[in-house]
């Protein structure tokens, strides 16, 4: 994907809202607890994550991929979540259960 195409990649308002809801739910998760910690996990500055969650900034594709992999999700999983209607807390719990099952 060219840089120009990436710069022009716009997410619809539902996807923005869903990514923001996921970030908020991750911040409430006992294993993360703060935007700074989420920033450390994902390698994305905490203020960038806050801006995403508040809809003040559009995530670039590269950063969105980095975010997905940092939280242990694939881009496919992240986009399915963003385009769906699953509760973010349930999505996090489901993913944790999948990861624990895989570890057995």
- Radius of gyration equals 13 Å
Relative strand content: under 5%
Broad shape: globular
In CATH's first tier, which class applies? Answer: Mainly Alpha
| SSE topology string | HHHHHHH
Sheet bearing the most strands, described? none
Protein name: Transcriptional regulator
InterPro entries: Lambda_DNA-bd_dom_sf
GO molecular function: DNA binding
Question: Could you explain the architecture of this structure?
Answer:
Helices cover 70% and strands 0% of the residues. The chain is mainly alpha-helical. It has one domain: lambda repressor-like DNA-binding domains (434 Repressor (Amino-terminal Domain), Orthogonal Bundle). The longest helix is centred in the first third of the chain and has 16 residues. It is globular.
What topology does this entry show?
Elements: H1 3-8, H2 13-28, H3 35-42, H4 46-53, H5 61-70, H6 75-83, H7 88-103
Features:
434 Repressor (Amino-terminal Domain); Lambda_DNA-bd_dom_sf; globular; mainly alpha; 104 residues
Quick structural gist:
With 104 residues, the protein is an all-alpha fold. It is built from seven helices and no strands.
């Amino acid at each position: 994907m060219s840089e120009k195409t990436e710069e022009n990649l716009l997410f619809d308002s539902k996807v923005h809202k869903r990514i923001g809801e996921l970030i908020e739910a991750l911040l409430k998760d006992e294993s993360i607890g703060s935007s700074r910690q989420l920033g450390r996990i994902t390698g994305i500055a905490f203020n960038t994550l806050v801006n995403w969650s508040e809809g003040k900034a559009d995530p670039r594709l590269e950063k969105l991929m980095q975010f997905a992999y940092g939280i242990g999700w694939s881009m496919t999983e992240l986009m399915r979540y963003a385009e769906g209607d699953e509760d973010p807390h349930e999505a996090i719990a489901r993913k944790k259960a999948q990861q624990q099952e895989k570890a057995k």
